[in-house]
Model the fold of this input.
Amino acid sequence: MRINNLIDTKEKSLREDRDIIENRLVQMKKNFQDNLDKIKHELDKIKEYNTIKSEDEYNKKIAALNAELANLTAEMKEINDMEVDLDQPPTEYPELDKYKIDIKPFEELWKIVKESQ
Done:
């Protein structure tokens, strides 16, 4: 009887721990998606950059976006690892790779502008 009670207590504790982890994962995924949306907004603003005199500012903003994309890549891996640990299929975020590709031409353009100045 004591063993059954102990098993029931441990199972309840494990279920509670899993619920906490799943809730944390849901919040992480929401924050991740919010950050992806912010990156998209910033990429849309980059398309409007047109002042040669502001090339230093543009290059700094592009470098910051690249750093944020790198951070999001690491965060995506952490999310995917948690999903696998919870026996869930890993969520794919194709827009992350798309944003990395989309920023490259602007990065190259404003580096060239800086070098020419």
Q: What stands out?
A: The chain has a mean pLDDT of 94. The chain has one domain: 24-116. The chain has three helices and no strands.
